[in-house]
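in:
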C-alpha cells in the first residue's frame, strides 16, 4: 500500500511539475514581453513628445525671427542622441528647413516614400514608419524610424500652406531594447506592424528577407495579448503576444518547447530515482517495524483477552517507553480503575441498601408511635381534649408526609411542615421543655430535597441536647440558599457534643446506643452523598454547654426541574 501511494504521489507530482513548468514558462515570457512593451511604449511616448515640441516651435515660428526658431530646434535636436533628422517639406517635396543642414540627394523620390505619403494622406495624424534606411542626405544612411505628420503653416503674408513635418529616430534604441530579450536558451522576440503584419524588427532579419526563415505572422495578428502554441514551422513553440498601444506594434515572444521537455526529462529522472529509494527504504522500515511492534502488541492482545473473560487481576510489565509501552501503561491503569470502581460500586450499593432500610424503619418507628399514643391517652384522661386534637392532627400530618405517596424527594416546604408537626408532638410530650422557631426564605421553600433529612437531626437535638439539660431549650430550624446551594440548618442551645465524639460522628465507628450511636446523622449524611455527590452532606459545629449547629448542604434544585 505504501509503494502504491508513493507511486501515485510521484505520478501526481510529475504532472504537477509539468504543468507548473509550462505555466512558469508562459508566465515568465509574458512578464518579459510585457516589460519590453512597457519600455518600448515609454520610448515611443518620449519620441511623440519630442515631435510635439518640434511642431509647436514650428507653428509659432511665424511670430519669431528665423534665427531664433533655428536655435530652438537645434537645441531640441542636440538634446537627444537618437534624433537623426528634423525636416519640414512642402506637399511637392521642397525642403523648407532641415537639421542637419546638409545637402540633399536629388534622386530620393521623396514624395513616394511611405512616411511622406502617410503624412499627406492622413493630415494631422502622427504616423510611424517601418524601419528603413534614411537616404535624404548625402553620406548619411542610417537605419531609422520616421515620425511624420501633415500640418498647416501660415506664411508671413498670411497665406496658409500644407507641409509635412519629419522627425527621424535612430532605430538602434529599439533594436537594443528588443535584442536584450532572452526567452530560454534559444528563444527570442520580434516586432510586427499591427495593421499590415510587416516585420519591424527581427533578430534574424537577414534570414527573413532572404526567405530562409518563416514566422507565422498571420496567426500572431489574431491576438492582442496572451499565449498560444504554434507548430507551423515544424517545431513546437510557445508564442507570447503583447501590443504596444500608442504605436500599433505587437511584440511577439518565441520560446521553444524542447527546452521545457528537457525540464520534464530531468523531473522524470529525479522522480524515478526518488521512487526507487523510497520503495527500498519503506520495505526495510516495514520489516523492522513489524518485528519491533508485533511482540508487545501480541502480549497486549493476550492480556485484553483475559480481561474480556473477566480476569481483572492482571498486570502487564512495562519494558519500553514507546507508543506500545504507553498503551500498556494506560491499559494497566484502566484495569486497576475498573477494579476499584467495581469494589466501590459494591460498597455503595450495600450502603445505599442499608440507608434505605434505615429510612423505611424510621418511617414506621413504632417506639415513637407508641409514646405519642400513650401521651394522647393521658391527655384524654385528664380532659385536655384540645391538646388531644392538636397531637392527633400533628401525628396524622407527620405520617402523611412520611409516606408521601412513596416519593423520596419532596419540596423544602413539605420537609419543614413534616418537622414542624414532629416538634408540636414532642413539645407536648415533654411538657414545653423547649421552644422552637422555623425560618425559611421563599426561594428555598420551592427547592427539592430528600425527605426525612431534618427529623433525625431534630430528634438528636431533643434527646441528646435539650432533654438532659436542666434549663428550657430552644431549637431553630432554617432554610436558605447560599452561594447557589441549598442550606438547611438545625440549631439548639443544649449540652453540645464533646470534641472527641464530634470528630468521628459521621465517619468513625458506631458507638453504643446509651451514648448515642449517631446512626441517624450518619444515615442522613450517606443518603445525601450517595444521591448528590461527595461535596454535599452534613457539617456539624458544636461546643460543650453552648449547643450544636447541624448544616445540611444540598444542590439547589427548583421544583419542576430536573431531579434525576
Amino acid at each position: 500500500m505504501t509503494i502504491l501511494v508513493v507511486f501515485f504521489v510521484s505520478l501526481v507530482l510529475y504532472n504537477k511539475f509539468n504543468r507548473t513548468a509550462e505555466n512558469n514558462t508562459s508566465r515568465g515570457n509574458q512578464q518579459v514581453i510585457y516589460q519590453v512593451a512597457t519600455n518600448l511604449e515609454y520610448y515611443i511616448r518620449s519620441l511623440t513628445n519630442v515631435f510635439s515640441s518640434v511642431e509647436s516651435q514650428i507653428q509659432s515660428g511665424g511670430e519669431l525671427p528665423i534665427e531664433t526658431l533655428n536655435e530652438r530646434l537645434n537645441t531640441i535636436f542636440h538634446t537627444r542622441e537618437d534624433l537623426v533628422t528634423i525636416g519640414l517639406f512642402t506637399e511637392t517635396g521642397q525642403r523648407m528647413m532641415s537639421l542637419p543642414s546638409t545637402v540633399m540627394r536629388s534622386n530620393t523620390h521623396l514624395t513616394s516614400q511611405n512616411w511622406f505619403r502617410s503624412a499627406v494622406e492622413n493630415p494631422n495624424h502622427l504616423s510611424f514608419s517601418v524601419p528603413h534606411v534614411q537616404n535624404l542626405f548625402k553620406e548619411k544612411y542610417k537605419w531609422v524610424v520616421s515620425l511624420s505628420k501633415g500640418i498647416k503653416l501660415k506664411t508671413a503674408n498670411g497665406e496658409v500652406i500644407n507641409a509635412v513635418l519629419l522627425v527621424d529616430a535612430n532605430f538602434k534604441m529599439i533594436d537594443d531594447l528588443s535584442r536584450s530579450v532572452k526567452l530560454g536558451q534559444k528563444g527570442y522576440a520580434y516586432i510586427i506592424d499591427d495593421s499590415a503584419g510587416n516585420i519591424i524588427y527581427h533578430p534574424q532579419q537577414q534570414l527573413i528577407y532572404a526567405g530562409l526563415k518563416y514566422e507565422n505572422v498571420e496567426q500572431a495578428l489574431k491576438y492582442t495579448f496572451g499565449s498560444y502554441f504554434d507548430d507551423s514551422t515544424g517545431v513546437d513553440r510557445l508564442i507570447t503576444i503583447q501590443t504596444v498601444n500608442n504605436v500599433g506594434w505587437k511584440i511577439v515572444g518565441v520560446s521553444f518547447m524542447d527546452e521545457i521537455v528537457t525540464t520534464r526529462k530531468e523531473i522524470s529522472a529525479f522522480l524515478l530515482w526518488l521512487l526507487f529509494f523510497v520503495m527500498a527504504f519503506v520495505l526495510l522500515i516495514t520489516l523492522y517495524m513489524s518485528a519491533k511492534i508485533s511482540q508487545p502488541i501480541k502480549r497486549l492482545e493476550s492480556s485484553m483477552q483475559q480481561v474480556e473473560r473477566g480476569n481483572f487481576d492482571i498486570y502487564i510489565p512495562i519494558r519500553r517507553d514507546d507508543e506500545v509501552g504507553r498503551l500498556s501503561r494506560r491499559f494497566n491503569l484502566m484495569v486497576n480503575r475498573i477494579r476499584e470502581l467495581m469494589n466501590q460500586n459494591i460498597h455503595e450499593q450495600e450502603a445505599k441498601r442499608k440507608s434505605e432500610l434505615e429510612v423505611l424503619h424510621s418511617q414506621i418507628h413504632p417506639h415513637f408511635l407508641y409514646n405519642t399514643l400513650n401521651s394522647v391517652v393521658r391527655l384524654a384522661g385528664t380532659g385536655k381534649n384540645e391538646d388531644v386534637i392538636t397531637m392527633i392532627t400533628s401525628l396524622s400530618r407527620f405520617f402523611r408526609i412520611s409516606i408521601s405517596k412513596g416519593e423520596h424527594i419532596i419540596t423544602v416546604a413539605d420537609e419543614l411542615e413534616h418537622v414542624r408537626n414532629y416538634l408540636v408532638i414532642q413539645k407536648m410530650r415533654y411538657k414545653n421543655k423547649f421552644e422552637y422557631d422555623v425560618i425559611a426564605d421563599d426561594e428555598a421553600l420551592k427547592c427539592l430535597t430528600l425527605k426525612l433529612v431534618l427529623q433525625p437531626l431534630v430528634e438528636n437535638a431533643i434527646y441528646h441536647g435539650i432533654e438532659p439539660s436542666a434549663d428550657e431549650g430552644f431549637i431553630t430550624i432554617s432554610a436558605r440558599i447560599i452561594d447557589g446551594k441549598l442550606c438547611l440548618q438545625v440549631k439548639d442551645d443544649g449540652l453540645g457534643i464533646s470534641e472527641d465524639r464530634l470528630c468521628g460522628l459521621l465517619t468513625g465507628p458506631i458507638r453504643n446506643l446509651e451514648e448515642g450511636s449517631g446512626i441517624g446523622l450518619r444515615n442522613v449524611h450517606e443518603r445525601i452523598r450517595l444521591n448528590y455527590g461527595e461535596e454535599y452532606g452534613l457539617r456539624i459545629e458544636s461546643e460543650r454547654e453552648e449547643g450544636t449547629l447541624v448544616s445540611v448542604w444540598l444542590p439547589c434544585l427548583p421544583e419542576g426541574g430536573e431531579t434525576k
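note: The first helix runs from residue 2 to 59.
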